[in-house]
Amino acid sequence: MSRYRGPRLRLCRRLGDLPGLTRKVSKKQAPPGEHGDKNKKPSEYAVRLEEKQKLRFNYGLNEKQLLRYIKAAKKVQGSTGYILLQLLEMRLDNTIFRLGMAPTIPAARQLVNHGHVCVNGQIVSISSYQCKPGDIITVKQQQSSRQLVEKYLMFPGLANIPSHLELDSSNLVGKVNGIIEREWVALQLNELLIVEYYSRK
Question: Where is the RNA-binding S4 domain positioned along the sequence (predicted)?
Fold first, then answer.
């Protein structure tokens, strides 16, 4: 699976705050590139593309995966943009990040891929696994796994745990109690522009 290996702060300067991608903060405020600080009004397409790129890089998806999530969201009754955000927020790697068990989504993905995480007592090594209400997320009983997550818990990526999750930090157990509400999505974006972007392709 491909993952973004390029400069993360450069992306944050272009797209705004991406809490899932990195915890670092750039000292520079202007967008990257030679012409970064010129105030040119972006086109409608550029605005929609930027919103889509925010989503892609924050959750660590490639274009094919995001297209698959869009198609799945369109099949469900309700607001496509909101359902898309729910699908992405309920991924296992993002759930671990939101519980504070990892500082960023790439770090959470690595925990999952290396087999440190169990869902309902079973080791799950697929980071795109869709968590459901009632799922219990635990850390493998191995000493190295527990030490790694305990170190991460001292400095969580986000200050607050969303209302649909609960964490027992002493036993390293997280529980999914429901589906995330829109106001708890940490990323600042307009999901309707993303749906528009794909509807015009």
Answer: 90-153
DSSP letter for each residue of 4-44? --S-HHHHHHHH---TTT-S---S--SPSSTTTT--PPPPH
Other CB atoms within 10 Å distance of the CB of residue 77: 6
Paired with 166 in beta bridges are 175
The answer to whether 49 and 197 are in contact (CB under 8 A) is yes
Count of CB atoms within 10 A of residue 41's CB? 6
Lowest mean pLDDT, pick from 8-17, 20-29, 130-139: 20-29
The Cα–Cα gap between 109 and 29 comes to 29
Q: What is the reported pLDDT for 38?
A: 65
Which domains does the chain show, CATH number per domain? 8-87+185-199 (1.10.1050.10), 91-178 (3.10.290.10)
Q: What is the pTM of this model?
A: 0.85
- The pLDDT, as a whole number, for residue 161 is 84
What CA–CA distance (Å, rounded) separates 88 from 136?
A: 18
72 in Cβ contact with 85 (< 8 Å) = no
The count of other CB atoms within 10 Å of the CB of residue 111 is 24
In sequence order, what are the beta bridge partners of 148?
A: none
For tokens 């440190």, the residue is 116
